[in-house]
Amino acid sequence: MKFIAFNVREDEEKYFAQWVDETGNEVLRLPDMLDMSTVDKTKGFDGVLALQTGVYPDEMFAKFKEYGVKVFSIRNVGVDNINLEAAKKNGIVVTNVPAYSPNAIAEFSVTQLMQLLRNTTIFRNKVAKQDFRWAPYVGKELRSLTVGVVGTGRIGRAAIDIYRGFGAKVIAYDLYPNPELKKLGIYVDSYDELFSNADVITLHMPATPADQHLVNTENLNKMKDGSYIINTARGALIDTKALIEALKSGKLAGAALDTYENESDIFNHDLSNQEIKDATFKELLALDNVLVTPHVAFYTETAVENMVLIALNSAKDVCKDGTASTVVK
Ligand code: COI
């Protein structure tokens, strides 16, 4: 079988090479993004692997069909950027990697919140200027806070365990509550209740059309003064302009953003010698109570290995058996 993989990074290479050695299949690895300007490269391949957060145009699936591609395997979990109907219409099976490492993302949520709570960026900057005073940057402890977890799938559940391990009171909201978690009595019945009772909101859900800009002025206004937002999920869940207002007014004490609504031209690109054109993003970067990271919550050795190997095995299974356990329905 012959596969083509887009957006391949150096740190993925050894897992691709290992799989090729073990299975004897062919995988052409390219650093390029997959879009309409590169889709012609997929001609003659059985399957296409990609990993990116931008939208894949519907016409791409028609091209796949024309070029004989059977399967589109994404090396990540989120499929909210894929029009599954367009894929189905063209007979393309889509697979994802539903659980490459929920802990990677959950741990990052806690890592970033802890930094905000203990003002580590502020202290690092002060120490760099030889200002070793403490006040007024007194921190907060997790066990004095209520953490609101939005989305209780695999990642949300890992986050709940870690936050509870630190002694935080956890409340959670999900349209489809998990029966096991229900026994913990942590679910609230509405976003209203979640936003008004949490000191911290951490997002662990896909960005469905219904949840676009879930964190908006209205919901932010329900929050306690001096609360925190952590987003390691999808940028589209937050109305960034509303968030900036809340950070400036003190409604929010801080935010950690590992995703951003217009991130695809920014994150995982070297823009060090360029002016950033996105004025809203520039404004975010200038705020000292915001931690911006370039969609790296997932980025651990465990996760990268699983993303590559599971996506390759899924593509192989679909080509061999017509289906795989990771087919997105
Ligand atoms: C995902 O797995 O959906 C992520 O957000 C990771 C990213 C590299 C696409």
UniProtKB/TrEMBL annotation:
Residues 111-297 form the D-isomer specific 2-hydroxyacid dehydrogenase NAD-binding domain. GO terms for molecular function: D-lactate dehydrogenase (NAD+) activity; NAD binding. Keywords: NAD, Oxidoreductase. InterPro entries: D-isomer_2_OHA_DH_cat_dom (IPR006139), D-isomer_DH_CS (IPR029753), D-isomer_DH_CS1 (IPR029752), D-isomer_DH_NAD-bd (IPR006140), D-LDH-like (IPR058205), NAD(P)-bd_dom_sf (IPR036291). Pfam families: 2-Hacid_dh, 2-Hacid_dh_C. Residues 8-328 form the D-isomer specific 2-hydroxyacid dehydrogenase catalytic domain. CDD domains: LDH. The keyword Calcium does not apply. Belongs to the D-isomer specific 2-hydroxyacid dehydrogenase family. This is D-lactate dehydrogenase. It comes from Liquorilactobacillus cacaonum DSM 21116.
